[in-house]
Amino acid sequence: MATGSYTPKNKAVRWFNERLPILSLVHGTLGAGYPAPRNLNYFWNFGSLAGLCLVIQIVTGIVLAMHYTPSTLAAFDSVERIMRDVNYGWLIRYIHANGASMFFIVVYIHIFRGLYYGSYKAPREILWMLGVVILLLMMATAFMGYVLPWGQMSFWGATVITNLFSAIPGIGESIVTLLWGGFSVDEPTLKRFFSLHYLLPFVITGVVILHIWALHLPGSNNPLGIDVKGPQDQVPFHPFYTAKDALGVGVFLIFFGLFVFYMPNSLGHPDNYIPADPLVTPPHIVPEWYFLPFYAILRAVPDKLGGVLLMFAAVGLLFFLPWLDTSKVRSAIFRPAYKLFFWLLVVDGVVLGVVGANPPEGSWILIGRLATVYYFVHFLLILPILGKVERTKPLPESIASAVIGNKASARPATAPAE
Amino acid sequence: MSSNPSTVEQVSEDGTTRRDFLYIATTAMGAVGAAYAAWPFIDQMNPSKDTLALASIEVDIAAVERGQSIKVMWRGKPVFIRNRTDMEIEESKAVDLSDLRDPQTDEERTKPGHEQWLVMVGVCTHLGCVPLGEAGDFGGWFCPCHGSHYDTAGRIRKGPAPLNLEVPDYQFISDDRILVG
């Protein structure tokens, strides 16, 4: 986040900026002072969209916390009161509930963008690992948020997920008791989940700042996956990518609005409109859609500890991805074999999601196990070997020459925007 | 990129370009959208529907004898309902309006035909404390916080409060039931 040599025109603004160069910071981070590759496609919109999602979740969440009561006796009713009595409470809650799904849609596309174009490779390893940290924090936040309405799915989801830790040999049971603050999911559990659900988004914000910081040292990757060679390969972030991002925001908000206004409960589970009952488990417990692939991996293993370990390993594995992929070429555009395996991984993720949504019986068990094995084979076998044996296509000389032909390399593209 | 023939800027006489127009139109559109989106987040802080549903109450005053008062809760605040004695009413009516900081006649503070009933929000108009009944220099109410004295019609007579105790909207449904709010 270089502060650059930005000088405001207005005298008073300049006086302020000399004492607190926050405008220089913005200029160098999101403004004309940040040169970005000139060939970024629409998949590069999802970083800023993820940031927007975080802001929407925090703003709506702060409002909901003004009306919500974190108590087993009052939580469910307070949520219903938000839906019925609080002015626009229905809107704000539906934005928050669907916003969580939107956040995961955006982040999953953002992650697969990184996988396809090799954005995790040197020199962006720390940037990638910070992203995995954000994903883990998001998962914890989303899970605890889902518990707060204190419906049947909230209660039993909380029971199942916290019981995962009982798989740890020896100390497992004590850890679960510690998480619960009692002998079952109850009042203390709800209160600590509320507190942490409020806290973690701000922790995420902190890691996002580190993520952006780590991004701005090497700069954005690009669809060709080759390094920027000079100013002819770049355009200033503002107005080029601010405009492109703004268009993406518009399209995204329309998509978001379709869910909020026309099918606000389509991504949720109807059982969560039944108040929590510790005596009756719903016949079919499923997590929210964004956890289904991991849930499928958990159930694929017939051993309690094994399933839990494999599920956490599925995310933990991503920390090692920069070293598991041995290929020096970043973008899948120049890796024909990797491109095939990338799409197989996408299909595998979808299959795992479908398996996770279905009851663990019949052929779903076998499909789930095969898909789980393939997930790990992709990262632990295919990627390390592929990088050594794959014949990659020749890389273009530069971004400019690939995008606008050789005639363009003669003149600089970073002329100030008219 | 002015050197690209397909996107040549058309600069008008006063130096503005089509891009200037797009900037302004986009920013204005965004500002309107943001203002629109902000309203639900502001309005949610207003009283909710269940709060508004409790905004009026019915009170049975049959058991309140002359010279007695009751206090009821209305919109989170106490409402004083006093069945005044004849002496209190006379005292109130005898006051010269020019002596009052917030001039109101006794009739203006009661309902015709029910002059003995005084209904007031029991919140001192100074800084919001609850005054004590049958106290103070004027036989009415006295606020212990900063020493405001109210008379037998709840009018401010002495002390820092600027206004008389507020008479809420209320009506007699029958001779012994009132609807406040």
What key attributes describe this structure?
heterodimer, A: 418 residues, mainly alpha, two-stranded antiparallel sheet, disordered C terminus, B: 181 residues, alpha+beta, 4-stranded antiparallel beta sheet, 3-stranded antiparallel beta sheet, 3 helices, 10 strands, elongated, disordered N terminus, electron transport (chain A)
Describe the protein's architecture and organization:
- Chain A is an all-alpha fold and 418 residues long.
- Chain A is built from 16 helices and two strands.
- In chain A, α3 packs antiparallel against α9, α5 runs antiparallel to α6 (125-147) and α14 (336-357) runs antiparallel to α15.
- The two termini of chain A are 25 Å apart.
- Chain B is built from three helices and ten strands, in the order ααβββαβββββββ.
- Chain B has a four-stranded antiparallel β-sheet, with no helix packed on it. In chain B, strands 1-10-9 form a three-stranded antiparallel β-sheet, with no helix packed on it.
- In chain B, β9 (170-174) and β10 (177-180) form a beta hairpin.
- Chain B starts with 17 loop residues before the first helix and ends with a strand.
- Chain A binds chain B through residues 59, 63, 66-67, 81, 84-89, 91-92, 239, 243, 246, 411, 413, 415, 417-418, and chain B through 1-3, 9, 17, 19, 23, 26, 30, 39-41, 43-46, 48-51.
Give the helix level of chain A as a range of percent. 55-70%
What is the molecular shape of chain B?
A: elongated
> What Rg of chain A do the Cα atoms give?
24 Å
Radius of gyration of chain B: 29 Å
Contiguous helical run count of chain A: 16
The stretches of 5 or more residues of chain B where confidence is low (pLDDT under 50) are: 1-6
What is the count of β-strands of chain B?
10
Distance between the termini of chain B: 67 Å
Query: Biggest interface: chains and residue counts?
Result: A-B, 21 and 20 residues
Order of helices and strands of chain B: HHEEEHEEEEEEE
**In percent terms, what proportion of residues of chain B is strand?**
15-25%
Oligomer: heterodimer
